[in-house]
Design goal:
Blueprint (H helix, E strand, L loop, with lengths): L4 H9 L13 E5 L4 H12 L3 E6 L2 H11 L2 E4 L5 H11 L4 E4 L14 H25 L4 E6 L12 H21 L4 E8 L5 H14 L3 H9 L10 H11 L11 E4 L5
Parallel strand pairs: 1-2, 1-4, 2-3, 4-5, 5-6, 6-7
Helix pairs in contact: 2-3, 2-9, 4-5, 5-6, 7-8
Family: Belongs to the short-chain dehydrogenases/reductases (SDR) family.
InterPro entries: KR_dom, NAD(P)-bd_dom_sf, Sc_DH/Rdtase_CS, SDR, SDR_fam
Protein name: SDR family NAD(P)-dependent oxidoreductase
Length: 265
Amino acid sequence: MPPGAIRRAACASASRSSSVPDLAGRGVLITGGGSGAGADLARGFADAGARVVIAGRRQGPLDAVAAATGAAAITADVTDEASVAAMFDAAGPVQIVIANAGAADSAPFARTTLEQWNAMLAVNLTGVFLTLREGLRRLDGWGRLISVASTAGLKGYAYVAPYVAAKHGVVGLTRSLAQEIARGPVTANALCPGFLDTEMTDRSVDNIMRTTGRDREAALKALTATNPQRRLIAPAEVTAAALWLCGPGSEGINGQAIAIAGGEV
């Protein structure tokens, strides 16, 4: 079983909350829907009765999630304005937009290249801007705009300055957008999970092992040490928060950066 698969299988076997809202008749577009948190969001929203559309750059992973959830799959590049517009054209009417697509890279600050900087801002910040802007333009009445940021949007981490800068930008963007739309039936919020039990974190563990010589257990411990609960966050916890933001009683939740991190921030 690949690294992290045992942990993820255990999380997947847990039942979802009985307070999941009924989203029948709602359309949801999830970027970065082919893996990690995006794939779990697709499952969760499909279980809640929503019409789910997932988007990403890799057709294979999208098709796998679509087959498992009944979602429609669209290939798109969230860093490209025309591609984002075409993505919404193909998705059809949606009331919930989740800007989840992202990527991570690491390097000491002094050795971080301009190419790395631009790449991190393009997918993690510009991609969120283009997705939420087009989503807002397409809304007709009630809506929910959700960005998936990170605890890196609320604090600093060493060796990932461009990623941290981009995620801080996502939180600021979301808060600013929330002020503009506050008088209508649309809200905008950011979800800020800590290290997630996903493929991206597996790659971070591999990088720690490669650069420090630690074994996998020690490398994973270095990541979970930032969480007071000493664990990775399950993607299902992000999905539960997103579903809550789309259910009754969440109308007053607007412009928030919701940490899902065991008390880290």
